[in-house]
Write a structure and sequence with these properties.
alpha+beta, Beta-Lactamase, Alpha-Beta Plaits, 5-stranded antiparallel sheet, 10 strands, 41% helix, elongated, binds guanosine-5'-triphosphate
């Protein structure tokens, strides 16, 4: 404890020594300004975190001690507290580190993040203002860490654990978002649903583990075919994949689908003897947004699914495009 940390009006009670001791022990910054904004109390915590002893600060106007604060939000708050006689707070969101305060012994490093409370009060006939400065660096760091973790979790919850492409949840969100956009704008949006042919036979022949490796290779090849940033390649479930293609007409989508089909076939991943082709292939159903007939996710998915089924029935390793004119 140092007596120089405090310059109080004459002690009013027999416990004045306690106040002095408390000021010296407090693990936060405590200062008092008089009505001319001169520093009349400057506690030990402030001395050690600002690198300014009480003897260099007491009796001087705060905004002369810290010229960088003049005209800033803190000065406005102090003035407003003194005038309105109402407490004020400087939110860390508006200014994270107003005072040049540093962890003890690290001046010149990064400033301590601060929460500042300004409380006006009257003692006798004199007006004063208490300024409390709390070090919230740890809380801010924890918040940053938690935000980072939340971000990572959110990202993970949108990624398929096996293949690394978007998962079904991500697909649902993207399809909804793009459907709303299509409703508002160009009205062009296509959907591809694709399924690895005879995949049960693949698993039965090569085993589930190699089945997983096959799914990953197909997902990588398929996702690599989508070039536009707004396109989304997703694992729809099991051995099914899906693509959301914004601003893409039915014809363009059919071309994309054909290119994807050809790309996967070109990998020449050996298939099981019981499969219809010697290599792993995809069947693909294509459906496109139509303002009157296919305007919501359920109908678009049902249309793409029925095309996929059609592709399977027509021999697999092919693309079928949804047509709005029913066959005669
Ligand atoms: N290895 C592996 N297999 C999966 C996974 N998800 C689904 N499958 C398998 O994929 C196979 C899908 O089989 P079916 O739905 O009968 O279809 P298919 O054999 O591909 O036949 P078609 O679709 O008619 O060409 C099943 O054997 C599932 O067990 C997975 O994550 N890993």
């Amino acid at each position: 404890m140092t007596d120089s940390t405090i310059a109080t009006p004459a002690a009013a009670s027999g416990h004045a020594h306690l106040s002095t001791r408390i000021l010296a022990l407090a693990s936060m910054g405590l200062m008092v300004l008089d009505h001319e904004l001169r520093v009349v109390v400057w506690n030990q915590w402030l001395a050690s975190h600002a690198g300014l002893s009480a003897s260099r600060v007491l009796g001087r106007p705060l905004f002369e001690v810290f010229p960088e604060l003049a005209g800033q939000r803190l000065e406005q708050l102090v003035q407003s507290a003194m005038q309105s006689k109402l407490p004020q707070r400087l939110s860390p969101a508006s200014q994270r580190a107003p005072f040049p305060l540093y962890a003890s012994g690290t001046w010149g490093g990064e400033r301590i993040e601060q929460a500042v409370a300004v409380t006006p009060f009257t003692e006798g006939k004199q007006h004063y203002c208490l300024i409390e400065v709390a070090d919230i660096s740890i809380t801010v760091d924890k918040e940053k860490q938690l935000r980072g973790q939340a971000e990572a979790l959110r990202a993970q919850s949108y990624v398929d654990g096996l293949t690394g492409i978007a998962n079904r949840r991500h697909f649902d969100v993207a399809l909804d978002r793009e459907l709303r956009r299509a409703q508002r704008n160009s009205g062009q949006l296509s959907l591809l649903l694709m399924d690895i042919d005879s995949f049960k036979a693949y698993n039965d022949h090569f085993g589930h583990q190699q089945g997983d490796a096959c799914l990953t290779a197909v997902a990588e090849a398929f996702a690599g075919m989508l070039q536009r940033p707004a396109d989304l390649a997703a694992r729809y479930g099991g051995e099914e994949f899906a693509a959301v293609l914004p601003d893409t007409s039915a014809e363009q989508a059919a071309q994309h689908a054909e290119a994807i089909r050809a790309r996967v076939a070109s990998l020449q991943l050996p298939h099981a003897p019981a499969a219809t082709r010697p290599y792993v292939t995809l069947s693909i159903g294509v459906a496109s947004f139509h303002r009157e007939h296919l305007s919501d996710a359920a109908s678009l998915l049902a249309a793409a699914d029925s095309c996929l089924y059609q592709a399977k029935r027509n021999g697999r390793d092919r693309v079928e495009l949804h047509s709005l004119t029913p066959a005669a």
